[in-house]
Amino acid sequence: MLLRRRLNERLPTRMVWLDATANARLYSAAFQRKVRVLDAQVRLRGQVIQVYDRANGKASLLEKDGTQTHQVGQAGVLIGEIVKRQGYTRPAVITFLGCQDAMGIEEVGHFYAARGTNQYEGCDALFVVGTPMPPPGKLLDQARMVFWERDLEFVAPWITQLKQYRYVDPDDGQGRAYPVAGYWDDPDLSAILWSMREAEIIQTAHRVRPINVACDVWLLTNIPLDELPPDQLVSMRDCMGAPLGVNIFLWQRFMDAVEALAQEYGVATQAMLMERMRASKPTVRKYMDALEEIGDWERATIKKGTGGMPSRGLRRGEQKEKNINSIY
Q1: Pairing outcome for strands 91-95 and 107-110
Q2: Residue ranges of domains in the chain, CATH in brackets
Q3: pLDDT value at position 20?
Q4: Burial of 231 (C-beta count, 10 Å sphere; 0-12/13-18/19+)
Q5: In angstroms, rounded to a whole number, what is the distance separating the alpha carbons of residues 141 and 139?
Q6: How many CB atoms lie within 10 A of CB 183?
Q7: What was the pLDDT predicted at 58?
Q8: CA 243 → CA 28, 236, 278, distances in Å?
Q9: What pLDDT, on the 0 to 100 scale, is given for residue 33?
Q10: Which of 74, 111, 303, 314 has the fewest CB within 10 Å, making it most exposed?
């Protein structure tokens, strides 16, 4: 295409392309023929669960010098909690090159690589973390190469518009949409962008062969994909089991501390949680109140020896504290 070579006219008049992420506009421009798309929507054996409230774009996960941001660690915490709650035994993560090894998962890969591999076929869950997209300059270069006969300049304003998910909420019967940026005023540029952004996510999801294998695909990207309609559309808060009004990642630290202290002592006191979390008294009290309201944890009043003010604590159900005075 770069050399502007036309299709060899000795090829058959009718041609068939087997391409899961074919784009009719790009094929027509490249081969100078009319294109008809036969799109089979094949049911996947696993579920598609999309976490909609963070794009996990490359700029949010990696600094310009390639160092990882705090969001990489947060993505790892989120994935770890989902794996624990769902009981997955062989999860895989595919994300940007440079941060995939920090997700806490052994089976890892990155975008734009090894599309035809069967490496992940035995996995029971795949986490696609991020919204891949080349720099705008590269997209424009590709557009000029593919649509080289075009007379008009490309219309390249970066515009945000609502795009609807192929999803209906089971509780209210309503659909959902999310603001997505793109070259919406130029169909040719939009086709190039789709082939490098949406199509890459679709190809990535199919590395685990979800048509043949009962593997759940978790999309940790908020972009709606018609080709991967979500069976569930959830928030990070839903995944972490965190109530409203708390920081979901601090909540996870709080829950880890409560569980560990209760395992060791039978109870988690306010003072113990403040020390374990290195958090302020108001924060710990707020999180203890939240846990009492939503969970199977109950308030416990702990006396410190023979004197002094009793300490507030939490224990699970009828669980009794062990040698609690030994820690004071």
Answers
A1: parallel
A2: 48-240 (no CATH), 248-327 (1.10.10.10)
A3: 82
A4: middle
A5: 5
A6: 23
A7: 92
A8: 51, 11, 21
A9: 86
A10: 303
- pLDDT tens for 252-274 read 999 999 999 999 988 999 999 99
Spatial CB neighbours of 200, under 8 Å, sequence gap ≥ 6: 111, 112, 132
Report the alpha-carbon distance of residue 231 to residue 217 in Å, rounded: 10
Q: Where are the alpha helices (DSSP H) in the chain?
A: 24-31, 58-61, 70-86, 136-146, 187-196, 198-205, 236-240, 248-265, 270-277, 281-294
159-171 pLDDT per residue, tens:
999 999 999 999 9
pLDDT at 308: 60
CB within 8 A of 46, min separation 6: which ones?
210, 213, 214, 215, 216, 217
Beta bridge partners of 79: none
DSSP 226: T
CA distance 183 to 28: 20
Bridge partner list, 179:
162
Asked whether the CA dihedral 37, 180, 76, 261 is positive or negative, the reply is: negative
**Which residue numbers in the chain have pLDDT < 50?**
320-328
Tell me the pTM: 0.88
CA distance 26 to 147: 8
